[in-house]
Amino acid sequence: MRIMWETSDAILTASKTAVKEFVSDGAGFSVHWGLYSLLGRGEWVMHSEHIPVQQYRKLMDSFNPINFNADDWISLIKEAGIKAFMITSKHHDGFCMFDTKLTDYKITNTPFGRDPIKELSNACHRHNVKLHFYYSLLDWYNPDYQVNWERYVEYYQGQIKELCSNYGKLGGILFDGWWPRYQLDKETEYFRPKGKWNLTQTYDLIHSLQPDALITNNHHILPLKGEDYQIFEIDMPGENTTGFNTTEIGDKPIATWITLGKGWSYIKENREFKTLDFLIERMKKCKEKNIFLWINSGPMPDGNLQLEEIEILKNLKHLP
C-alpha cells in the first residue's frame, strides 16, 4: 500500500543569499530547554512517564532559571566560530519558552517572569549570530490538538507569526513532531494529526515575513515545497542507523543534527558526552561533503549550560 501524507504547494522560498550563507556557515548550536529540564529525564518525559497534563503544568511553579545569561551563551558559541543558534520555542509538551499572547502556558508566567528568547534574540543580533527557532507541531498540552483541529492550526500558525514578527531578523525555523512514516501504536495514537497542517500557508507566511529565514521540517521524508534544506537526525545524510531517518537525499542543501550529551535535553543521571575528537571528526566529514552541522546542548534548569559542553565549545575555538 502506498503511504500518503500531506504535501505543500508553497510558492516562496528563502532568499538565495541566505541559503548560500547557511551552507557557508557550516555549523550551528542548538538547545533543548524547557519544563522537562527540571526533571532531568529527557524532553519526552511527560509522554514516557504518563504524567497528566495538570500535574506536569505544576512544573511552571518551580521554573526559575536564575543563572541564565543570554550574552554568555551567544558569546561562547561565537568564540567557538559558530554562526547560528537555535532554541526550542515550543517542544512536544506544549510549553512556550517565549512570551506568546495565545496561551498562558509560557515562561513569562513562571517565577522567572522573563522572555529568554527575547534576550537571546538581542544577544544574537549584537554578536551577528543567526537566530533559528525549533517549533513542535505536535502538542501534548493544547486540548485543541485532540478536539478542534481547525482551532489548533490557527493557534500554531498564530504563534509562528509571533515568532516571525517579535524577535527581529531570523535565520530559520525548524519544525518537528510530524513524522508521516512513524508507525503509531496504542501509546502514541494521540500524536496523530487530526487533519492537515496547512503547510503551504505556514511556509509562505514565514517566507513573507522573514524572506531570509530557512525552513526545514524534521519529518524524515524528502523536502516539500517551501522547505529550504533537508535535515537528518543523528545520522549522516543517507544513513539510517536510527531506524526512522529516510535514506533519500533531495536536491536541497542538507544538514545533520547531533547531540553533545546522551540525550537532546538535560539528563541529570547520565553524564556521557561526546568527545572533542568525535566532534572534530564529524565537523571534518560535514565540511568535506558540504553538510551543515547542528550541534545540540541540553541546558540545566538553572539556566547554565553544562560544564562538559562548555568545555567542548571552548576547545573548538583553539582549532586551526
TrEMBL record:
SUPFAM superfamilies: (Trans)glycosidases. Keywords: Glycosidase, Hydrolase, Signal. Its EC number is 3.2.1.51. The keyword Signal applies. GO terms for biological process: fucose metabolic process; glycoside catabolic process. Transmembrane segments: none annotated. It is an enzyme of class 3 (hydrolase). GO terms for molecular function: alpha-L-fucosidase activity. InterPro entries: FUC_metazoa-typ, GH, Glyco_hydro_29, Glyco_hydro_29_N. This is alpha-L-fucosidase.
